[in-house]
Each structure stands twice: as C-alpha cells, then as structure tokens.
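Journal club prep — side note

Before the paper discussion, L.F. wants everyone to see what a predicted structure for a comparable chain looks like in token form. Sequence:
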Amino acid sequence: MPKVTFSSENKVKTTNYDYPKLRLAKDEKALLILMEDPQVEYVHTLRKPKLENGKAVTITKTRKDKTTYEDYDMQFLSRPLCKGDYNILEDKGADPKNCPICKLASENSEYADAPQRRYAMHVVRYRTKGSSFDLINPFSVELLVWSFTDRYFNQLIEFKEEWGDLRKHDIKVECTNKDFQNFDLQVASKAQWLADADRQSIVKQTYKENQLDDISIAIGQNKELKWLNEDLDSIREAWSAIKGIAQADEGWYKEEEVDAALADDLNSILDTDDEDDEVEAPKPAKKAPKKAKAEESDDVEIDLDDLLNDLAD
C-alpha cells in the first residue's frame, strides 16, 4: 500500500457546500447589488412517492382557482446536474442518450421530469435595519449566492432593458413564499454602493475575496453515475410498490383468477374435455391510475450584460 506525505500538493480538494445562500423568510426584505452574469446549468429534481406501511401517502393540494385534488406526497431526493450535452438540451430539451434521468423521464414521465434550466450568481447584500431597505451604520455588506429559475432570469432581462446597467441600480427583494423562495423584485433608482469611494472599496473587496470557485454547486449536484443510479433505483422501487398495491386493491391479482388460469392452461396441455370444469378466463389487468400532476411553481431567471466591468474606475 502506498504512502502519502503531509505536503500541500497532496491536499484533497473538497467542495464547499456550506456557502452562504440568499434565503429569506416570508415578508423579509433584502437589498442587493447584481455584480455579474449568472451561470446556467440544466438540472433534474428527483423525487419519489412517500410510503407508510407499504402504502402511498397522499395529500390534498389546492389549484390557483381554489379547487382541490388528491396527489401523492413526494419525497425530495436530490437535484443533480443533467448529464446531457448542453447544446442538445438547448435544442431538444432532453438528452436520453447521455443522461440516465432524461432516459427515465422519456420512458415514464411519472418517474422523472425533463431537465430545467437553473441559474446561480454571486450577489452583494447590504446589511439593513430589520426587515427594511434602510442601510445600517457603519456601511456593511456580505456576499451570497442566489440560485433561481427562468422566471427571475426573464424579469431581470426586462429590468436591464428598461434601466440599463443593473450594477448602477440596487434590486429590492421581498419574499412572498418561504417554501418556494418566491420573490417580488423591484429596481431602485440608484445604487447605494456608488455613493462614495469607501463604499465602493468595501463592496469590491467583499465581492472579490468571497466567491465560490465553482458556482455550479449552487445549482445542482454533479453526482457520479453510480450515485445517480441509486436514486433512480429508489424511485423505480417506490413506484413499483405503489402499482403493486394499486393492483392488489383493485383485485387484479385475485387468487381464484390465478388458479383458474392455471387450471385452464393444464386442461389445454392435457387436452381434457371436462366442460364442467371450465372456468372464466382472468380479466385483463387495468392500468394504474395516473398521478395527478402537481402544479408548477413560478420560478425566475436573469441575463446581465458585461457586469464584470469596473464601474468604480
């Protein structure tokens, strides 16, 4: 077995998943500076039905029109990066040849969804008084990572088209839904960090020295194939259990029908003429009820032009 020395070149590179994220409570406010363009990746969100005592757990959900429906209660497993080729994903929306999750989704849309674009970027957050947009004194900021969807990306594009360089305008954020991290976004008329040289220096230093080396980890996990396959096997097993239960509940596997089928087969093999022993052929299996598709929550995304230019020069 080889030995390894205690030297810097042998340090194991680890991924820092404990990065500070933009996450707000309901009605909480944040004042942000958008300093860069976001990174985009395609991701899958893997879930499986929850089981209790071998049976599926269901919950009541409410649509936008206030009507309700029953759906399976889904357990979150992971949010892995799609293994597909980015150009193929942009063109086709999925890449079953290169990504096992895309392949599973193409075979059964109940088991997995097609990949979705998701974005991440560093944002500078002002420290403010309580849940307000008023800056504390002395001036202070922190660097966070904001991960978001197409919805906010498109909204930020509209902001840029209307206001120009977004580094020159603070972004006011108010949380409207804690669970889904839905935000109401507004553009301020000016950027507080540009008020004087001291503030500019603090913001630039904070932004420069606290960035993630690989911001894609804020979008999804770059899982090894073996761990991905474990998740997919877990999903298949859960759905198989549900469908087996559904079939049993509907009487699809009644013992008498199985016995009748065996007797019919034996009579055919032995070429018997005993008509009194005829039994009714088993009924064809019914299809399992389709899972009601949960409504998609709105998400948001952003596109910024040349935000890495130094405004302070």
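L.F.'s comment for the group: The helical segments are 86-92, 100-107, 150-163, 197-209, 225-249, 255-270. Keep this in mind when we get to the figures.
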